[in-house]
Amino acid sequence: LCSVTYSFIPKRYPDYYQLIPNPISMLRIQAWSQKPMHYQTLAQYRADWHLLFQNARDYNMPGSRVFMDADFLQK
Hints:
The protein has 75 residues and is mostly helical. Helices cover 61% and strands 0% of the residues. It has 5 helices and no strands. The radius of gyration is 13 Å and the shape is globular. One of its GO terms (molecular function) is chromatin binding. This is Bromodomain-containing protein. Keywords: Bromodomain, Chromatin regulator, Nucleus, Repeat, Transcription, Transcription regulation. It comes from Mycena alexandri. It is found in: Nucleus.
């Protein structure tokens, strides 16, 4: 269930793009990781995962399922 939540950038929430300046999804990270030289360091790859989970926490209410999943998955 978590993977579905983070697989796509939500299109049905128009305010998401106003509140989240750098949207990212698991599918985008996967696609970028398959491009030669997109991630030149492990730190760049980890930064995108951090951004994904931070976006989830920034957009969703503390205590919500998505917020708590982001905390759990980032550990």
